[in-house]
Amino acid sequence: MTVPVRHPRRQRSGRRFDLRATALFFGFAAVGLCVAGWIVRTALDVAERRPAWAFVLVLVAVAAVVLGRRGRSRLSVLGLARRTTGALEEGAATALDALEATRTVAPAAPAPLVPEPTAATVDLHAVLDPDEFEQAIAGLCLRDGCAEAEVVGGAGDLGADVIAVAPDGRRLVIQCKRYAEDNKVGSEDLQRFGGTCFTVHEADVAVVVTTSGFTRPAAEYAEQCGIVCVDADRLREWNGGRGPAPWALVPGPAGETGPVDDALG
User: Fold this and answer.
1) Which residue, 73, 96, 121, 220, is the most exposed by fewest CB within 10 angstroms?
2) Which residues form a coiled coil (predicted)?
3) Are the CB atoms for 215 and 187 separated by under 8 Å?
4) Which tens digit of pLDDT belongs to each residue from 113-171?
């Protein structure tokens, strides 16, 4: 009796399920997703401060994808995970360096403060109205040593706008003419002031201060009566501390004289 020979069955070919490799793959995938989320958050922070770095991060990501596709056929799951993680770490380091650079940039130096103009640099005729002009003249008198200075201008002042006491004790009577540059003080203004400054106000020194100038007849009348004329140029010098005060332009009580008043015209 012939006994048939049984051939052993061939086992089905196929990849064996590897639990360890699968778990390792998913572990690295989870780590990669966490790192990717952190990088995206950091990249958004960097992009808000420096948009150029956002473009750099995009290039790094594209390069990582291209390299991953080229090596997919010859890289194992573990190798691919390692390369991806390395690329993500490099991108994260670049983003952190950029963020740190934005935080450590020295703040710009503050713009220099422009000092406000002082009384010595203000152009009086350009910024003050008539009342403020009288106050400014009284302030100049006090600044230069007058014991008293009072604004008395107004209705019925009879030509006196400021009355002060000079450092040497003389009584100053000042008339203020806040005029436009092309409107000069005429002889009629000087005559009205000359009729009251000495007799009514008992001035030792009578002064007319203007922001413009004086006509020739007015200057001649002032010279005859002994009235000190302070035009715009002389006022600017007095205000800036470069010229004498009006009471220094006439002889003092002890015969001391100041600069000669030879520029009335």
Assistant:
1) 73
2) none
3) yes
4) 433 434 444 465 667 898 999 999 999 999 999 989 999 877 667 889 999 999 999 99
Instruction: Indicate yes or no: pTM above 0.70.
Output: no
Half-sphere exposure of 111 (CA within 13 A, CB side): 3
Alpha-carbon distance of 207 to 230, in angstroms, equals 7
For tokens 């048939």, the residue is: 4
Instruction: Please report, for the chain, the start and end positions of each structural domain, with discontinuous segments joined by +.
Output: 19-104, 124-249
Instruction: Confirm if 152 and 203 have CB atoms less than 8 A apart.
Output: no
Task: Give the sheet arrangement for strand 227-230, strand by strand.
Answer: 148-151, 162-165, 171-177, 205-210, 227-230
Q: What are the E-state strand segments in the chain?
A: 148-151, 162-165, 171-177, 205-210, 227-230
Q: How many CB atoms lie within 10 A of CB 55?
A: 10
Given a contact cutoff of 8 angstroms between Cβ atoms, the answer to whether 210 and 179 are in contact is: yes
d(CA 174, CA 187) in angstroms, rounded, equals 16
- Which range has highest mean pLDDT (4-8, 27-31, 53-57, 138-142)? 138-142
Instruction: Burial-class residue 228 by CB neighbours within 10 Å (0-12, 13-18, 19+).
Output: buried
Contact 59, 5 (CB under 8 A): no
Helix/strand/coil for 229? strand
- CB 188 within 8 Å of CB 177: no
Maximum C-alpha span of the chain: 172
Both structure tokens of 251: 């002889």
Q: What is the CA radius of gyration of the chain?
A: 47
